[in-house]
Amino acid sequence: MIQVLGSILIVAASTAAGIVIAYGYRSRPREIRQWRSALQSIEAEIVYGRVPVDDMAVHLSVQLPQPVARFFELLQKKMILDRVPLHDAWPQAADEFWPETSMSKPEKEVILQFGSTLGTEDAENQQKHIHLALAHLEREEEEARARQRANEKMTRSLGFLAGILIVLICI
């Protein structure tokens, strides 16, 4: 009886591990899409609204879905409460935010590069930087979708099969 219960626990644990790893493959394209949406909102705030960046961070932290809204909450906190200038607050917020996401280093580099130009040029040049960041994120999203198609289902299956293999070895 104890062996059966132990076997079930091993299979359940390895299946859960496979599902958790597969979740990362599923979340990455969604989070990149959210960032693309955030950049389009930033473009609208800059080009049409002429809104200061700290006010824009407040608006985006309310309008956008999690986890991207969390980034703008951190940015808003650093700029308004801690009085950190934008060129320092953006990378600090990114460093604090990035471990909470499924996104990888290339997406972080795109966001950091965009953040270094935010608020330094006129609206027309800001719009060009936004379009450049959108193009980079679109390419990363396509790559993330390809990885999702290739690895998500396989990772879930491998989690279950690894549990069965461990049980068979132990018997």
What's the short story on this structure?
With 171 residues, the chain is mostly helical. It contains six helices and no strands. α1 packs antiparallel against α6.
Structural class: mainly alpha
**How many helices?**
6
How many strand segments? 0
Low-confidence stretches: none
N/C terminus separation: 13 Å
Q: Main sheet?
A: none
Order of helices and strands: HHHHHH
Rounded to the nearest angstrom, the radius of gyration is: 21 Å
Helix content: over 70%
- Shape, please? elongated
Give me the oligomer status: single chain
Mean pLDDT: 88
Strand content: under 5%
What are the key terms here?
171 residues; mainly alpha; elongated
Your description of this structure?
The chain has 171 residues and is an all-alpha fold. Helix content is 85%, strand content 0%. The protein contains six helices and no strands. It has helices spanning 2-49, 53-63, 68-81, 86-97, 105-117, 123-170. The protein starts with a helix and ends with a helix.
